[in-house]
Amino acid sequence: MAPRFARVRNDGEALAARLARELAPFGNASVVWSTVPWERDAVVVLDGTPTRVRCAALGTAPARRAAGPPVASPEDGVIENESLRVEVALDGSFVVIDRLSGARSGPHGALLDEGDRGDEYTYSYAGPTLGSRDLTGTRRTTVSGDRAKVTVEFVLRLPAGLRDDRLARTPELVTCAVRAEVSLDAGARRVDVRLVVDNQARDHRLRVLCETGTRSLTHVAGAAFAWLERETRVAPRPGWIEQPTAERAVHDLVAVEGATRGLAVGVDGLREYAVLHDGRSIAITLLRAVGFLSRGDLPERKGHAGPALATPSAQCIGEREYRYCVVPLEGEMTLPRAAREIREWLAPPWIGRGDETAHSFYAVEGDAVIQPSALRAGPDGATVARLFNPSREPASATLRFARRVLDARAVDLREGELGLGNTGLDSVRTAAPPDLVDGVVAIRLAPYEIGTYLVRFT
Fold this sequence. Notes:
Elements lengths: L1 H22 L5 E6 L5 E7 L2 E7 L3 E4 L9 E4 L2 E3 L3 E5 L5 E5 L5 E13 L8 E7 L6 E7 L2 E13 L13 E13 L5 E9 L4 E8 L6 E5 L4 E5 L16 E2 L3 E5 L4 E6 L4 E5 L4 E9 L28 E12 L5 H12 L3 E5 L4 E2 L1 E5 L4 E7 L5 E6 L6 E7 L3 E7 L23 E3 L2 E6 L4 E8 L1
Antiparallel strand pairs: 1-4, 1-24, 2-3, 4-25, 5-6, 6-7, 7-8, 8-9, 9-10, 9-15, 11-12, 12-13, 13-14, 14-23, 15-22, 16-17, 16-19, 18-21, 19-20, 20-23, 21-22, 26-29, 27-28, 28-33, 29-32, 30-33, 31-32
């Protein structure tokens, strides 16, 4: 799979670079490119120094430092910006303190390692359980421009694998080096984490734990076009071949909201999570190291789920990098705002060349719930704009383009090409018709609705 992922990344970066060259206004000044359709502050590396800049909505802006308080490190293991204070322990875990309210969130970032006698389909526990809590590593605190970072390096001593009977882990230990980088940018309301793990152990699952500070019967998991509300406790299903577990799939974020506080965790390429202890903990799976595609001797499942093939490369031996971020939920930091913070983290701006004037091609203004999905060429010279409402409440937004809009209409997912699909219908359900006011498009979306619009310009 690694070569496939590398190919996708390389092709995507090449395409983005080509489009940036073609779309950027002529000039030789340094500009910052942003692909999210709203204005924001972000930190980019300018002349070797992380620098806070102001980004235009889906477009370019001059690459120069924006106004705002700097980051600081008042003491070793502590970093601050204008909103948050982060205290990092010697085991790599950290707490986040809101500087206005004094509310504490955490600890976050503790590693949990459990034996895994399962296969690529199903986890199967094997003890003992180990972790990073209360380990003592080496800690280094740095401030460079508008980014502060605490780096903690420590070693996990983990069982080398399973015993011959596969019922428990072997007493033989191997060393797995870990480097945790906890960083805070100027102006950010999130804490970014980069983990580098040199895995030398087999047959185990490694997860990172984030404490929510609350309890909840339900939680939210991001999917492709929705924030799914799921029950935190998983009920058994009599008669099922394999019982459901707390482990579930996630697209971009997991959030637990209590009455007054909560936590959202953003993930980059990590697709499995669990909400534990009645909502008090969010566990993100970093890796599962197993040696078989399918096994027929697991207590969690009756029989095989696939071919009984050995898969030694699935032991994930070697160094791997993981990224996630945490956003404490409190006061004005609601789930929609946290989702935007995570979206900005997943779509960092980059430096290019252009003129010294800000240019915005497309802006989504208004309700923070609305999420953009696509903007591309459509039929007959029109532009396709697709957005969705991931929440259970109605939402609205305004779409502003670089050129005045002549007309806009809602279409279904076929984008006006009625020959697509086998529906036999002239029209499938569409979003409400948009309103056009002074060349700007106003849209309304029902709960969990995808809106597709054909837009034509003057």
